[in-house]
Design goal:
With 414 residues, the protein is an alpha/beta fold. The chain is 40% helix and 25% strand. A six-stranded mixed β-sheet has the order 2-1-3-8-7-6, sandwiched between helices. β16 (371-377) and β17 (382-388) form a beta hairpin. The radius of gyration is 27 Å and the shape is elongated.
């Protein structure tokens, strides 16, 4: 079994009220055992929609993963629909009943006539343990094809995959080895990059594929490989291919790991035993948000000064009044002094600073909307660079925050 499809059920997914995170989680876990997801389909809480999607999915693949519609309320119709699809009926399952009674023993008010429907399951299914919830986890087998129906609650679905479904699939099916390696480049247009490495890409064997994933002026180059071989051999082949790619993109290569830039920055700072602070004008705290969003950031990140008004730049960050008067807040001179000032104020090894025009107003012919100066200050040198971003105010500040961390990452790598 090498291919699968995912069906996510729920009106809330189709009106934008809830964002589907289950499919990404399932895709990642299946990929790790060599099963590629061909398609993900979101459908309404409708018997006909579910029946149609199941029929179409099984016409293409032998494994279908389904989430949602297993609650106790009237809008949750997945179990009854699966009964109709597989020609079976609902019966009480004693193991599910005892699990639910134990789960809610300290909350007896939860146990009512609707809760009792949770231990009713299709007779034709194999019930798997849902250790963290009340909705049954079900496996159906028909003509060599498999369906797994699991709760839509993301935490429950993830536990179901890790503890029940993935181990069973490993036992039931022989699968391919699927591996991915990602390089991150910055500062080169996607089309220019594609032309630069076209000959290398054309030389890839048919079981290897390169994908371009652009975001925030970065491009993640993901090399994927799928073959009937062991991990060690396939991994060695991929590394050999990547070794010939890296010299072609060396001037733009900023990372060889598929991790957020702020994580890469944090890992380098931890390795070096160094610290960083930030001074933000146009980005308004976005750099701080990125740096402290991951656990362990307190070991390297000291804090930020959001110096939006010039008085804060002067009185807190020690930007000279003459600098602001002569060059303006959005200038190389000002952003250099902001970076130096916050690094000295917080006594860190490094600092980053931003000052720009995020719009939609405030631009001039010399400094149009999207102009952002970014500086990185270290104990030996301060580097400043001017950027011109496009988009909405939020897009410009998001680009600027990412660019600031990329400049810092480059300096750390030196």
């Amino acid at each position: 079994m090498e291919k699968a499809e995912i069906i996510v059920i729920g009106d809330e997914l189709l009106i934008g009220q809830v964002v589907d995170t289950n499919s990404g989680m399932i895709e990642k876990q299946l990929n790790q055992i060599g099963i590629a997801v061909e398609r993900t389909t979101a459908v309404h809480d409708s018997e006909q929609a579910i029946m149609t999607s199941l029929t179409e999915a099984f016409s293409r693949v032998d494994l279908v993963m389904m989430t949602g519609g297993l609650g106790p309320t009237k809008d949750d119709i997945t179990k009854t629909t699966l009964c109709r699809y597989f020609g079976t009926r609902l019966i009480e399952d004693e193991s599910v009943k005892q699990h639910i009674l134990e789960l809610y023993k300290d909350r007896p008010q939860v146990l009512n006539s609707l809760t009792a429907t949770q231990w009713q399951v299709p007779e034709a299914c194999t019930v798997l343990e849902n250790r963290v919830g009340s909705a049954p986890l079900m496996e159906f087998s028909m003509n060599g094809k498999l369906l797994y129906s699991m709760p839509g609650v993301p935490f429950e679905a993830e536990v179901a995959m890790e503890e029940q479904i993935i181990p069973r699939l490993k036992q039931l099916r022989q699968t391919n080895t699927i591996l991915h390696r990602t390089l991150i480049v910055y500062g080169i247009p996607e089309s220019t990059l594609a032309l630069r490495i076209a000959e290398w890409e054309d030389s890839l064997p048919e079981y290897m594929h390169l994908a371009y994933l652009p975001a925030n002026r970065m491009i993640r180059l993901r090399l994927s490989a799928s073959a009937h071989t062991d991990n060690v051999q396939l991994s060695a082949e991929m590394e050999t291919r990547l070794a010939t790619l890296k010299p072609l993109i060396q001037d733009y290569l900023i990372a060889e790991d598929d991790k957020p830039i702020e994580v890469l920055v944090g890992e380098l700072l931890k390795q070096k035993g160094e610290t960083v602070s930030s001074a933000e004008s146009c980005t308004g705290g976005k750099i701080a948000m990125l740096l402290n969003r991951h656990a362990g950031s307190s070991s390297f990140y000291y804090g930020t000064v959001v110096a939006y008004d010039n008085s804060i730049k002067q009185n807190v960050l020690s930007v000279e009044p003459s600098t602001l008067q002569t060059y303006g807040a959005v200038s190389e001179q000002t952003v250099r002094q902001m970076a130096d000032g916050v690094r000295q104020l917080m006594n860190t090894d490094w600092s980053v600073a931003t000052s720009g025009i995020a719009g939609p107003d405030g631009g001039t012919p010399d400094k149009p909307v999207g102009t952002v100066w970014i500086a990185v200050s270290g104990k030996e040198t301060t580097l400043a660079e001017c950027f011109h971003f496009r988009g909405s105010r939020d897009q410009i500040t998001t680009h600027a925050a990412a660019a600031a961390l990329i400049l810092l990452l480059k300096q750390l790598n030196k």
